[in-house]
Amino acid sequence: MRVRRNFSLSTKALLRHRVRTALAISGTGLGVAALIVMVAIGEGAERELMTEVEAMGSNLLLVRAERAEPLIGRSSSAGLVNTLKPADVEAILEDCPAVERAAASFDRNLQVKYGILTTRTSVRATASQYELIRNFPTRRGRYFTPEEDQSGQRLAVLGSRVAASLFQGVDPVGQRIRIERVPFEVIGVLESKGASLNAGSDEDNQILVPLRTGLRRVFNVDHVTLIYVQVRAGEDMEAAATQVATLLRERHGLDRSEPDDFGIDNQLLVLQAERDAAASFQRLITALAAVALLVGGVGILSIMMLSIRERRNEIGLRIAVGAKRRDIRTQFVVEALFLGGAGGLTGLLVGTATAAAIRRATEWQTAVSGDAIALALGAALAVSLIFGVLPAQRAAALDPIESLRAE
Amino acid sequence: MIELTGVSKTYEKGSTVVRALDDVSLRIDRGSFVAIVGPSGSGKSTMMNIVGLLDRPDAGRYDLDGSDVGALSSDELAEARNERIGFVFQSFHLLANTTALENVELPLVYSNRPDISGLGLSALERVGLEDRAQHTPGELSGGQQQRVAIARALVNDPDLILADEPTGNLDGASGLEILGIFQELNRLGKTIVLITHDVEVAAMADRRVNIVDGRVVSDEITRGD
Question: What ipTM was reported for this prediction?
């Protein structure tokens, strides 16, 4: 009963001094908004990382064919890059204990026909392991088996977008398509990945064919451009990369002075770097939020001090009509908490809106979680409590006789 | 019933010691209407602060309704002020931008009474201002503001009303009106202690106590019952 009466008193007192109240609220509001934005960016980055890791397949190393540059002025991507062979994959599987699975890949944009419809799409020759390594299952039908790969059958698994554009409602499984005039039987359609791993490559817009068939019948090459290597769970990615690199250098007969004729990308490290960038930005905003909250707290402190000075008469009167010291203290602590709480809510609105604006304006996926909201409101209330206690103590210690006499 | 026995109070002002009350003994019976009169600086305000439990004497004893208030804790004094004493001040001390009713209800905020509904409005009725309940002090005349303050003093139905120069900020007519209310309250059984420097105001009371330099110099019945 008393608490409720006290609370309504406090809110009324704050409403009587609107400008001052608004000032005190805006300080903590800014701090809370910064806090919300910070956590939103951090959580967004974390979620994005998890989605990317999931989309890519976990523990993945990418081994790229990369010809050592024998001639000055010729870029490594120009000309024929034929250093990686299918046999390298078997060797990696056999000799690198840290490696769980590996799949070679060769891809090129080619013309694909179904009936009278024609499209250009990326055709990728790869092994059936691709499904597990890339975590990329079929939505309909199936992948080709290792045996079908070995026996060179002409089978194709379509990306969801290719399937949609070529077949337009017809079930593609069991249909026949032609890749550069070579007939293939469609045996499966992939799940849609949506987000692309690297800018420019759309993984839903590709056709998978068995490695041997693809290399011999479509591309007519004996090398591959890429080897996907999945490292065993619990193994160190760096150590696995070293094993693969050592093996490949040996197999390719490179001596010490020669550079690698391949490159190994540790995708997790790339993502890690992205996350580190987000984290350092987050630290900056955390510092900003802390400063803003501190400023907000000092704002509450000074505005409370000012308010108590102006309201000495009122405090004296309250004591005369029966307020105990703790009633006065409670009243002003509640006022401080009210300022902090209002600042917290304001900051929550501003912060959420800012996070949404950042999401629209940048590539960052921001996410405002319940934890973030609790943290921000808690911080605002804690700050206002810390900075409200001192003025409240001072108000409670006022001498009623002098306070009543004050002009 | 108020009983002061040998009460003294001194203040230090810089290097000089001010003896605000000097060995004052005074007895005020329940239901009486007493004016405490003296020039400014005579110690009458100190007397009111001690009688009103806002201050403690340095020496002597103060019994309120038969018990020594010197033994009470600060919280107990607050409760006693809330339940047993109503204050009326010269400058009204109403909260600005707060309605008359809310001002009157202020002591109830600190009251332990379980049911307080309607008390504020009925106190306003007693001073004839129930139709001004939602007005703020700025919208009321000086006399009306002081009546709101009296209603505030009455809201917890205390036995004792302490009024410190209640007519000091009012014109003659309003002052008379306020004094009339005190007389009426006294007739209904309230003990009224009126502190004033104005002899005419003091004449409204039944008894006049003169204080000079912290001492009671005269104590006379001015009006027989």
Answer: 0.94
